[in-house]
Structure formats: C-alpha cells, structure tokens
What we know:
This protein is 21% helix and 25% strand. It has helices spanning 16-25, 69-78, 88-95, 152-160, 210-219, and strands at residues 4-9, 29-34, 45-48, 83-86, 102-104, 112-120, 136-143, 147-149, 164-168, 179-183, 189-192. The longest helix has 10 residues, at 16-25.
Amino acid sequence: xxxxxxxxxxxxxxxxxxxxxxxxxxxxxxxxxxxxxxxxxxxxxxxxxxxxxxxxxxxxxxxxxxxxxxxxxxxxxxxxxxxxxxxxxxxxxxxxxxxxxxxxxxxxxxxxxxxxxxxxxxxxxxxxxxxxxxxxxxxxxxxxxxxxxxxxxxxxxxxxxxxxxxxxxxxxxxxxxxxxxxxxxxxxxxxxxxxxxxxxxxxxxxxxxxxxxxxxxxxxxxxx
Length: 224
C-alpha cells in the first residue's frame, strides 16, 4: 500500500491539488487535510502547500500557525514525521517555530513569478535525499515575501549543522546566504520557497521538482 502524504489546505491555499497530483504521479497517495481538523488522519508525511493562507492579512503564515491542525503537525514533526512546507508552507513552519529564521518582503519590494535555478547543498534531509550535492534544479518561484532572514548566529548554526539544503543561483529576492530551503536539526522538517510541484511534468517545463518530492516518498518507503 502506498504511503499517504497529507497535504494541508487553509483558506487561501492554491497549490494543494497540484501537490496531490505530483505526489500521486510518483506513487504516493496524496490526501487533502483541512486546516480545521485536529488530526492528520492516516498520513505518513505532511506537506503544507503554497498559497496565501487566510489571505496573509496579518503576516504570511502567522494566522495559519494557530489553526487546529498545526497542533497535530507540530506533535508529528517532533516525533520524526517528515513535514515539508512549500512557499507559504515554509512561512507557516517558521511561524510555528518548527524551522529557524523568518521570511520577509523581497528585496526591491516586487512579487516574483519566474523560473529559478537552485543548487542542492545537502542531501541529508527528507526533501533532498534523492538528489546529489551540487545538483542544479530548475524550479519556479512565486512569492512576494520569500526573502529568508535570520541572525548571524543562526546562519552560522545552519551552516555548521548542514541545515541549508537549497540555495538560489543567482539570488532573486535578497535571502541571506542565498538560502532557498532549510531543514531542522532532526532533518525531517524542511521548508523551501520554490514550488517543486510546478516542475513535476515535462509539459510544465521541467521535471526537476520530482527529485525533491521523490525524496519525501523515499523517506516513508516509496522508491522510484
């Protein structure tokens, strides 16, 4: 039986069905999880999809962090379940304290919607285990507040602990250290601003996102 990948949906989420389709195409079983639920059902891993949770009216991810399902996500993450946050999902994970740092407005104060080259910096995470260090990935970005920021001390810790999993080449939004994705110390919680589900089929322009989504499936027992 294919492991179930729960994809969290908040009011304003707009990438949940794309994510489910991409997961299913790789052999997983994507299942939508409503933000008002208090459990993760039968999920073996969780992806918080991109979009604009609760309209981002306060601060991206700040309201979503208090949705009932986040208590279950936080508990599962602390127990070692793979939890991935894509774009707005990355913002939610930082607001929830599951990942260090924060996301602020892009340098230049412009919304960015474009293809972006990434470099894999570490394969020691639930999102990058199927990739290779130094591998280049062409994956779209679509955000206004994707500029990753953290203190110099935190940045030094991220580098020392091999927690920077993806970087931009070149940097499109001003993120410190060119950071596009980071993981927690336990390696099971990962956030990234680029959208791998939008690079999962040749008709979309790239299949480079599949190596990241495949890593998630590998972490719960589905190999290509």
